[in-house]
Amino acid sequence: MPDYDTQTLRDWDRRHIWHPFTQMKEWEESEPVVIVEGDGSWIVDSEGNRYLDGVAAIWTNVHGHCRHEINEALKAQVDRLEHSTLLGLTNDKAAVLAKRLAEITPSGLCKVFYSDNGSTAVEVGVKMAFQFWRHEGQPEKSRFISFTSAYHGDTLGAVSVGGIDLFHGVFRPLLFPTIQAPAPYCYRCPMGRGTPAACGMECLAELERIMESHAGEVAGLVIEPLVQGAGGMIVQPEGFLRGVRELCDRHDILMIADEVAVGFGRTGAMFACGREGITPDIMALSKGITAGYMPLAATLATQRVYDAFLGEYREMKTFFHGHTFTGNPLGCAVALASLDLFESDRLLEKLPKKINKLKEKLQGLIELGHVGDVRQCGMVAAVELVRDRATKEPFAWEERVGVRVCQEARTHGVFLRPLGNVIVIFPPLAITVEEIDFLVDGLAKSIRTVT
Ligand code: PLP
């Protein structure tokens, strides 16, 4: 139990914490739930209420909260070394983890650049790609293609390659301009078509037109593989990612895969790129890398990208980028313990059963009056609520339907977060099939009550 009573903690929070992505005027008038414990798929508040963690501690948790094996690895590491630096030194855990990441990521990614969150992992990738072409003698290749509704984080470089105006609009004057390609949001097809089968993925053809019209100018393309997360869990049609890889090859553009949200098993495979059999030139990882325990990130690159940075110091080919907690041994030790658990728990082998269970349960939601679309990719799903199913007219933003559904879900013991009118299902991968029942049943009741 916490050292202070709930009201005191709420009061100190309201007085002193500025919460992310939160209208604080509203928050100050609320009675925040104070989480004090985690236990498997559950989080527990200061009054002893248990909530099934339907967002996996904001898309990070893999093996459940407070896994004994990870706790032990962290305790052992903290008694040996809490931090040193990768400036002029290395450390054992960072070295072992880099080797293992190179082994498990798509073949060809062999160099690991550490940082500490998803935004920096992407930012590093963008800077690497930009500098790469300077060393290759093609400095005119300096622009980036990204997708509408893309989300790559909140530092300025990551925001620049993002495409969610609600989050990014106000910062536009601070950002570098990018070239935006239409996201394959099939429920609201940007090309005005129906299903991918009917359209033959016209959005890929459009991407190629965009590449042609910027021939010789583009350094890299940034993509969230298989699922665009914060943009609304937009699930890409099968083959789209492979098509993007082919186009990047044809136009000699570096492909930067942002697997911050989907890496480490979320889509049913260890990495989303692996599901389509592709290797990006650069890959950004964070969140699930430590199974939700510690802030750690890694940007992986191919030998080709890395080699472009080699030279005499005076040639100024060094990658001048780094963060204080780069390669932090606590984070790396936890990441290694998590990789061990993937193996000892045979986590990936167990996923198909859970994925099918989730699929079967989602079928029940499709029938509900205001459910416009239900989409799923592995262990991530989204339910898009609409005012009118026939016209796909969305609920107005001010109605806060998504927020109200998630509030209601708490009364059924489920913690969820919306993305506008989209309810996200993103539980720890260790969730049991019985807990999947509980989660989706709680969501169904909440949708019925609110809409
Ligand atoms: N990239 C993707 C795909 C994400 O979903 C996120 C966060 O949700 C980020 C990058 C940014 O990660 P962080 O919040 O750790 O900076």
UniProtKB/TrEMBL annotation:
The modification N6-(pyridoxal phosphate)lysine is found at residue 287. Its cofactor is pyridoxal 5'-phosphate. Pyridoxal 5'-phosphate binds at residues 118-119, 258, 323-324. The record marks 21 as: Participates in the substrate recognition with KAPA and in a stacking interaction with the adenine ring of SAM. One of its GO terms (biological process) is biotin biosynthetic process. It comes from the Bacteria. The keyword Cytoplasm applies. Its EC number is 2.6.1.62. It catalyses: (8S)-8-amino-7-oxononanoate + S-adenosyl-L-methionine = S-adenosyl-4-methylsulfanyl-2-oxobutanoate + (7R,8S)-7,8-diammoniononanoate. Belongs to the class-III pyridoxal-phosphate-dependent aminotransferase family. BioA subfamily. HAMAP family: BioA. Homodimer. This is Adenosylmethionine-8-amino-7-oxononanoate aminotransferase. It comes from Geobacter soli.
